[in-house]
Write a structure and sequence with these properties.
By secondary structure, the chain is an alpha+beta fold. The chain is built from nine helices and 15 strands. The chain has an eight-stranded mixed beta sheet with strand order 4-3-5-6-7-8-9-10, sandwiched between helices. Helix 2 runs antiparallel to helix 3 and helix 5 runs antiparallel to helix 8. The longest helix has 22 residues. The protein is globular, with a radius of gyration of 21 Å. The mean pLDDT is 91. It binds 6-O-phosphono-alpha-D-fructofuranose. 6-O-phosphono-alpha-D-fructofuranose binds next to loops.
């Protein structure tokens, strides 16, 4: 008989997201497990959406539906699928008191026959969906608040429109060459890669911290003619046009915010979608795009600004309000703030009235 081998089989890091979430809960003695279970539900929704995104071409869910979403954008079928999966995964668990989605004008109440819960779930089911048909990376974004209105009934708009600094947790999923889920509950930022063969998100990027100095900048140069003087000067600074003893940053822009944000988080850099002549408040949405990513950025040692100050300090006025966005290494974002202060005082004064 051969020697009995005592060598352990080499197992990949089998630290699943469920185990990680449970371990994080363990660090909060008073934790009830409600947030833990909500995060489990989010991870499961992400697996279901990931399965469809990889099958989009085969499952003939490419292409737009005949429906338009609240912003008049043609709804891609995968958008609709992702939106419904997330809602149905959370409408009956008794963990959520109200939901809100990029795809719906108004709040999504918990159905009358289900018990409402303690958390508020706001989400962008499939950001960058215009990239589905060209097979570019797309993403899902989640923001989780506590219910703040009295009583244990259904949540209201007041529960949804809270500053990002009040977030309990935030997460994004990026459906790219692999599917990753990145989340934070305020205890650092942790990335998990989906192993489709076992259907598990396995810890692959523990304690993500943005590297410094940043190497990349992500902006849509096609909008240069609409940019303010401050933005033009800032982008020229990023390109080191006037500065012979400084190297330019590399430009990378996919046009899918999650993909651009994720690269800058892992490699160091800045993603910006500034206000311009055609978009006086920028393009990106505060409650389900900028706030959750600003929460994650802050937990990863990075910073997110609207050009004046920390996005986490903004008090949302409207569920779908837009906000200028500068997210990444603090020194790069603060440099953008400096150029706006130096060259765009009129725009800043106008914007500050709406802020
Ligand atoms: P533009 C995708 O439609 C999106 O909302 C973000 O994901 C992305 O960063 C941005 O719009 C791209 O906008 O104007 O550069 O095409």
């Amino acid at each position: 008989r051969g020697e009995s081998s005592t060598a352990m089989v080499s197992l990949p890091s089998l630290f699943t997201i469920e185990r990680h979430i449970l371990a994080q809960q363990g660090q909060h003695p008073g934790a009830t497990g409600r947030l833990t279970n909500l995060l489990y539900d989010i991870a499961l929704a992400a697996k279901l959406i990931a399965r469809e995104t990889t099958r989009a071409g085969i499952a003939n869910i490419l292409g737009a539906t005949s429906a338009e979403n609240v912003h008049g954008e043609m709804q891609q079928k995968l958008d609709v699928y992702a939106d419904q999966v997330i809602f149905r995964m959370n409408d009956h668990t008794g963990r959520v008191c109200v939901m809100a989605s990029e795809e719906h004008d108004d709040l999504l109440p918990i159905p009358a026959h289900h018990q409402p819960g303690y958390y508020v779930l706001i989400y962008d089911p499939l950001d960058g969906s215009s990239n589905i048909d060209v097979n570019a990376s797309i993403g899902t974004i989640f923001a989780i608040h506590r219910k703040i209105t009295p009583g244990d009934g259904r949540g209201t708009m007041e529960d949804v429109l809270q500053p990002g600094s009040k977030l309990v947790a935030a997460a994004y999923v990026i459906y790219g060459s692999s599917t990753m889920l990145v989340y934070s509950t305020g205890e650092g930022v942790h990335g998990f890669t989906l192993d489709p063969s076992v259907g598990e998100f396995l810890l692959s990027h523990p304690n993500i911290q943005v590297p410094s100095p940043g190497q990349y900048y992500s902006v849509n140069h096609g909008r240069h003619k609409y940019w303010s003087p401050g933005i033009r000067h800032f982008v020229a600074w990023l390109q080191a046009l006037e500065d012979n003893d400084r190297s330019p940053l590399e430009n990378r822009y996919i046009g899918s915010m999650i993909a651009d944000f994720h690269r800058n988080l892992l490699r160091g850099g800045i993603f910006l979608y500034p206000a311009d002549e055609r978009r006086p408040d920028g393009k990106l949405r505060l409650t389900y795009e900028a706030q959750p990513l600003a929460f994650i950025a802050a937990q990863a040692g990075a910073y997110a600004s609207d050009g004046i100050g920390d996005i986490l300090d903004l008090q949302p006025r409207d569920l779908h309000q837009r906000v200028p966005v500068f997210m990444g290494n603090r020194e790069l974002v603060e440099q953008a703030e400096w150029f706006l202060q130096r060259y765009d005082r009129d725009w800043l004064a106008e914007y500050a009235k709406r802020r």
